[in-house]
Amino acid sequence: MTVEQRPDQLSKWQQQAMTVPESLDLFLGGGRGGGKSFLLAALFLRHCEQHGSNARCLVVRKSFPGLQDLEAEFRTYFANVYGNALRFDGQKHRFTLPNGATIQLDQLERENDFSKYQGKSFSHIAVDEAGQYNSPSLVDRLRSSLRAPVGVPVRFVIVANPGGVGHAWLVRRYALQEPWKPYTDPATGFDFVTIASTYRDNDFIDRDRYAKNLMASCATDPELGRAWLDGDWSVLRGAYFATVIEEQRVMLEPWPHKPKQQPDDEWSDYPTQWHFYLAHDFGVAAPSVTYLVARSPGAKGPDDVFYPRDSIILMDEETTTHPDDLNAGLGLTVPDQADRIKAMCQRWKVSPSGVADDAIFNRTGSQEGSIADEFRRCGVAFSKANKGGRLGGWQKMRRLLADAGQPDVPGLYVSRKCQVWWQTVPALPRDPRNPEDVDSTAADHAADACRYALQGDYRMPRVKIKMW
After folding, report:
1. Average pLDDT over every residue of 178-188
2. What is the pTM of this model?
3. Does residue 223 contact residue 241 with C-beta atoms inside 8 Å?
4. pLDDT in tens, 106-129
5. How much is the pLDDT for 414?
6. Average pLDDT, the chain
């Protein structure tokens, strides 16, 4: 929003957005500079004018510093409408309109912050910069405060740009839906409309200058700058692995798991032997992710493709990732997780053993010992991944992804069966404080398990089965 745009002026995109029935929730998910903040103010103004003191609006962001800019924009907007009749409480960050309607801006960063909304009611709630939330759990919980008297419509609005730690869950739910066409969000059961804009839809800014400034702000990450300009959620721009993941090189169609028993002499010739093992990242409240990994001896796979020696293939995936939240686990115990891992290994007729995060080998203080000890008692044997430096592991992963498809050097290949990998790893953002690292607040559990698979030179014991 800019000072040049008056409250009674709307761009064509904003005018069209205002025609969406108030019974539908909104996802405003385009690029930067498209006028989403101005549209949000206009939506609130209409609601407040129609319903007076029964209209109570709330906008949350993850941090108070982020709210300051939005608060300044709202003050300009509503002051232009009401002048001195507008009241503003700076301590509560709350606007009170002459008819008694209220608009409050607040911060929601962690679970404890939600307590201040319990018992309160709002007729319209908007989550601004929703991509800053690594999980939709807090965003969804806000709906418990979305209620109003009979006859007053309630609405939930999510505002976001591509990139950020929440990119993956926003894509899964909203970003790639057909624009302007109502749909039901399966996670919440509510009806949404996705509408998007870019700076090109904003008639009230110097668009050429804005584009140059935005690209300059992303000088070290021009792909992210282009994503912000174009509002494109479908490509992997701005992500840590953006320049090295190409589906046509890295993604494999699922290999068959109908192994045939082979005599001992089938494995006597080392160059023909594939090695299979597990790579595991543990979690309870957070997801556990386990991969069945194949290391190539320099041979063809069942797809008749030659994989250079020491190429890594993620063949299958077992995960406790919550279906509606990529950063939440199912709360399964070690015995339950072990049963699921063993079932995956049984499908492939491989031994349930491999490598895991070094942390699960730490003693818990109980008589039972470590998490790794509990897995072993349940029939799954893990060794330490000896993961070493986090940055070194990411760089190795980047190199292997970049080399996938090369005929003479090892690469990293990932089956389409590994759905959580494909849903999260390509969109992982960089750590804003250290561009050489992945942002650890994002859904990085699949990436961690993959990184453990690449560390060292782990090899399973020789086996007597063959998959093809």
Report:
1. 94
2. 0.73
3. no
4. 999 988 888 888 888 999 999 999
5. 98
6. 87
Q: What is the pLDDT of residues 388-437, one digit of tens each?
A: 788 999 999 999 999 999 999 999 999 999 999 998 998 888 887 887 89
- Return the HEC string of the chain: CCCCCCCCCCCHHHHHHHCCCCCCEEEECCCCCCCHHHHHHHHHHHHHHHHHHHCEEEEEECCHHHHHHHHHHHHHHHHHHHHHHCEEECCCCEEECCCCCEEEEEECCCHHHHHHHCCCCECEEEECCHHHCCCCHHHHHHHHHECCCCCCCCEEEEECCCCCCCHHHHHHHHHCCCCCCCEECCCCCCEEEEECCCHHHCCCCCHHHHHHHHHHHCCCCHHHHHHHHHCCCCCCCCECCCCCCCHHHHEECCCCCCCEECCHHHHCCHHHCCEEEEEEECCCCCCCEEEEEEECCCEECCCCCEECCCCEEEEEEEECEECCEEEEECCCCHHHHHHHHHHHHHHHCCCCEEEECHHHHCECCCCCCEHHHHHHHCCCEEEECCCCCHHHHHHHHHHHHHHCCCCCCCCEEEECCCHHHHHHHHHCEEECCEEEEECCCCCCHHHHHHHHHHCCCCCCCCCCEECC
Percent of the chain with pLDDT over 70: 89
Q: How confident is the model at residue 257, as a pLDDT?
A: 65
